[in-house]
Amino acid sequence: MSGWQAHFITLFPEMFPGSLGKSLTGRALDNGVWHYITHNLRDFGEGRHKNVDDTPSGGGPSMVLRADIAGAAIDAVRVDAPDLPLVLPSPRGEVLTQSSVRELADGNGVIFLCNRFEGVDERIIEAYDVREVSIGDYILSGGEPAALVMVDAILRLLPGVIGDAASHDEESFANGLLEYPQYTRPAIWRGRSIPEALTSGDHARVAGWRATTSAALTKARRPDLWAARCDDKKPKKLSEKAKKPSEKERPPEKR
Ligand code: SAH
Predict the structure, then answer these.
(1) Which tens digit of pLDDT belongs to each residue from 58-115?
(2) Structural domain contains residue 58
(3) How far is the CA of 89 from the centre of ligand 1 (A)?
(4) How many domains does the chain have?
(5) Candidate of 140, 148, 150, 151 to mutate for ligand 1, largest count of ligand atoms within 8 Å of Cβ
(6) pLDDT per residue over 96-107, tens digit each?
(7) Is residue 143 located within the same domain as residue 219?
(8) Do 131 and 35 belong to one domain?
């Protein structure tokens, strides 16, 4: 199998490829740009009922995914995919951003450990190099929808998934700003017309309008993004490069 690979360790293999099997990502799947493999956690379960979870140590409601079961599943997947990063969708993880999506898209694939319980035994997170990733500050009922979201975001960055590569550069977050408003025909709808600059045919005016609205939207809706962007643009007092002594100034290396 070729292309970027997604491994989903899950109790619900039928949830995949889900939305990823349709539209752009579905076509990319058919074209071999990526492929996915599901690994049923139940197969690693114990006893007659193939149990994978148990009550939390110290008490409390709900259940915890057992370390021995999760470990066996991860080891089995790693036989054929030893070098892929292991991602645990988790509300306490680093919050997914376009730059972490880019980083995952630049690799060969990801193994997702999709959990349905209150949590995973912490020893799994310690023993394996687990990257905990959240898709936002809210609680889902399981890791599968989060994994679908992450893979969707990753796939659209792979070559050949979106027809026009230039569209990435225009999108929200690509340049640290939210995207400008979009319009299409009809020219007037319910008395509302399209901003005149966009229909002027003047490319410089169009670009100017888009830059201005994009900045205004970002300032109004996402002051955090706006502030981060302004920080990036501030000239650094002393750049890293300037701090480094030049070849001549550097003391000779100890022999
Ligand atoms: N008790 C946990 C939440 C459990 S929700 C806590 O308070 O942190 C059940 C599972 O859904 C989690 O183990 C995780 O795999 C997934 N999940 C829930 N919310 C998520 C989010 N925002 N991002 C990524 N995964 C999430």
Answers:
(1) 999 999 999 999 999 999 999 999 999 999 999 999 999 999 999 999 999 999 999 9
(2) yes
(3) 7
(4) 2
(5) 140
(6) 999 999 999 999
(7) no
(8) yes
Q: What is the domain-level CATH number for residue 151?
A: 3.40.1280.10
Say whether both 150 and 71 belong to one domain: yes
Q: Is the CB of 146 under 6 A from ligand 1?
A: yes
My answer on whether 24 and 92 are in the same domain is yes
User: Positive or negative CA dihedral for 2, 125, 151, 98?
Assistant: negative
CB 154 within 8 A of CB 100: no
Q: Is there a single domain that holds both residue 143 and residue 50?
A: yes
Predicted TM-score of the model (pTM): 0.89
Residue 95 Cα to ligand 1 middle (Å): 12
Instruction: Say yes or no: 245 and 173 in one domain.
Output: yes
State whether the beta carbon of 143 lies less than 6 angstroms from ligand 1.
Answer: yes
Q: Ligand 1 centroid vs 112 CA: distance in angstroms?
A: 13
**Distance between CA 86 and CA 108 in Å, rounded?**
12
Residue 200 is assigned to a structural domain of this protein: yes
Q: Which domain holds residue 107?
A: 4-155
Give the Cα separation of 175 and 198 in Å (integer).
21
